């Protein structure tokens, strides 16, 4: 998933950013969330778990005090003269989930609001599922399926309500990096296949070296380092488009990148540690423009269930990942995924290595998915385990056009693979979306994980 450059709320004297020490000024209480574990023999059993706000959104202040370590999109150079001193001087505090960030839970339902107005404006959020107070829930995906209900009816062009897996460390890096005292309890350790540079702390050190404030986001910027790991995008969507996308990495675990080549920056996009493009299945882009959207086969004006299955070569949890399959359930009806309808391309309805190769050829794209190991590399990442992440965000880099419009804009929309959704190419500008659609929101509910065929009614 593209990394959001989020406009974060700054309560005086608060600022939202990632830290490593633990602050005590604001209590940290994780909102509860019920999820279900399912088997074909025993049905589904409820589990009481919770979510945690990502550390990059939190108030960062001097250890034991109230002085901001980061204000707007710049660092306090006295408290943060270098990466290590900053980690030692600055503390990460608790969060007011509902009041500051618009994050609420009720039973099995999580709602994420786009714009929340409190002392100042907060835009977007990112949360992860916890197993306990100090560890993320780790999922082993092979020969399993994930199902959840989603309501994207209030998500306009340019806003992404995402649910995905990241190969984050289960404890948020607490045991591996001495300067990280906060860990998963405070949402540290984030990584994804974009090797995001906007993270304020990576591996227990502040990302102050080369930090450049964003020109369009008053609360975000980018440092020299990025945080890379494999990513499985289950659901990136708004009411107009949706995609699911595996992103393999050459790195076998969460890795701090420090050079443009490692991070895959600019012209190095296809040669970094991770496959930033991934292999996406977006029904609109794959040639079926009638499948998903308002009033379409999967009607985004109403809630529906998304089912994703991770099939292996021998139908066991130890076999090699061979296919990622998608189903939908709406109004009691199981809806099979759409099929590709691209000239010169065979018919596919799931993600396989053959589909990815055919798609890249048909669209004239570099097959960085294959050079980063394809489904075999994803299989290895799945063996190590993945963390469930849910977010809502707008896109200061590309206005979300890669998801819901024609992209790249330099190519005609009629060219294969360019049209990804019905949104206009001038849509998705963050300043416009934030002012015109502040009430946008996404709701995830009824999250189930278990054996193939165990999580939804047939």
UniProtKB/TrEMBL annotation:
Keywords: Carbohydrate metabolism, Cellulose degradation, Glycosidase, Hydrolase, Polysaccharide degradation, Signal. Residues 1-19 form the signal peptide. Its EC number is 3.2.1.-. It catalyses: Hydrolysis of (1->4)-beta-D-glucosidic linkages in cellulose and cellotetraose, releasing cellobiose from the non-reducing ends of the chains. Belongs to the glycosyl hydrolase 7 (cellulase C) family. This is Glucanase. It comes from Hohenbuehelia grisea.
């Amino acid at each position: 998933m593209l990394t959001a450059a989020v406009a974060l709320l700054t309560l005086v004297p608060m600022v939202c950013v990632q830290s490593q020490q633990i602050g005590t000024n604001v209590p940290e209480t994780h909102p509860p969330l019920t999820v279900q574990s399912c088997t074909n023999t025993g049905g589904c059993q409820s589990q009481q778990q919770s979510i945690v706000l990502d550390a990059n959104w939190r108030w960062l202040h001097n250890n034991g005090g109230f002085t901001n370590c980061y204000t707007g999109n710049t660092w306090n150079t006295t408290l943060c003269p270098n990466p290590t001193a900053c980690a030692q001087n600055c503390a990460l505090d608790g969060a007011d989930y509902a009041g500051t960030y618009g994050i609420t839970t009720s039973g099995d339902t999580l709602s994420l609001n786009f714009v929340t107005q409190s002392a100042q404006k907060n835009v977007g959020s990112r949360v992860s599922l916890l197993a306990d107070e100090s560890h993320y829930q780790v999922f082993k995906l092979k020969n399993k399926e994930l199902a959840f209900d989603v309501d994207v009816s209030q998500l306009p062009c340019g806003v992404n309500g995402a649910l995905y897996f990241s190969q984050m460390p289960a404890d948020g890096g607490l045991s591996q990096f001495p300067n990280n005292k906060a860990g998963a309890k405070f949402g540290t350790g984030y990584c994804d296949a974009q090797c995001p540079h906007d993270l304020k702390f990576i591996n227990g050190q502040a990302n102050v070296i080369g930090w450049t404030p964003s020109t369009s986001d008053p609360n975000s910027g980018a440092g020299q380092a990025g945080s890379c790991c494999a990513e499985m995008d289950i659901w990136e969507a708004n009411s107009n488009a949706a995609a699911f996308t595996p992103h393999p990495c050459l790195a076998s675990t969460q890795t701090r990148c420090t050079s443009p080549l490692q991070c895959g920056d600019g012209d190095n996009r296809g040669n970094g540690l991770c496959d930033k493009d991934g292999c996406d299945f977006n029904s609109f882009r794959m040639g079926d423009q009638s499948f998903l959207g308002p009033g379409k086969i999967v009607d985004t004006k109403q809630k529906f269930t998304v089912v994703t299955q991770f099939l292996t070569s021998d139908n066991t949890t130890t076999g090699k990942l061979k296919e990622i399959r998608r189903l939908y359930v709406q109004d009691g009806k199981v809806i099979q995924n759409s099929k590709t309808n691209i000239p010169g391309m065979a018919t596919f309805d799931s993600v396989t290595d053959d589909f990815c190769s055919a798609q890249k050829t048909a669209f004239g794209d570099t097959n960085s998915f294959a050079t980063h190991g394809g489904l075999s590399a994803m299989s290895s990442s799945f063996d190590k385990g993945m963390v469930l992440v849910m977010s809502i965000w707008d896109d200061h880099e590309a206005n979300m056009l890669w998801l819901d419009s024609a992209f790249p804009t330099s190519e005609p929309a009629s060219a294969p693979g360019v049209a990804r959704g019905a949104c206009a190419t001038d849509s998705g500008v963050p300043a416009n979306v934030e002012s015109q659609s502040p009430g946008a929101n996404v709701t995830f509910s009824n999250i189930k994980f278990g054996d193939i065929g165990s999580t939804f009614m047939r």
